[in-house]
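This section describes the prediction task in plain terms. A model, or a person checking by hand, is given the sequence of a single protein chain and must write out its three-dimensional structure as a string of C-alpha cells. No templates, partner chains or ligands are provided. The sample shown here is typical of the held-out split.
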Amino acid sequence: MWYVAILLVAFGTLIYALYYNIRNYRVFIKVMTESERRMREFDDEYEEVSVRIAEGRERMKRRERLYDR
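The expected answer:
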C-alpha cells in the first residue's frame, strides 16, 4: 500500500509543477504582450519625432538659402 502513497505524491508533484509552469507562462505572455505594445508605441513616437526633425532641418536649409542671397 506504500506504493500508492508514493504514486499519489509523485502525481501531486507533477500536477503542481504543470500548474506552476502554466501560471508562469501566462504571466510571461502577459508581460511580453505589454512590452511589445510599449515598443510599438515607442516606435510610432520615434517615427513622428524623426519626421519633425527632418522637416525642421529642411526649414533651416531653406532659411539659410534665403539669408545667403
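For orientation: The longest helix spans residues 2-68.
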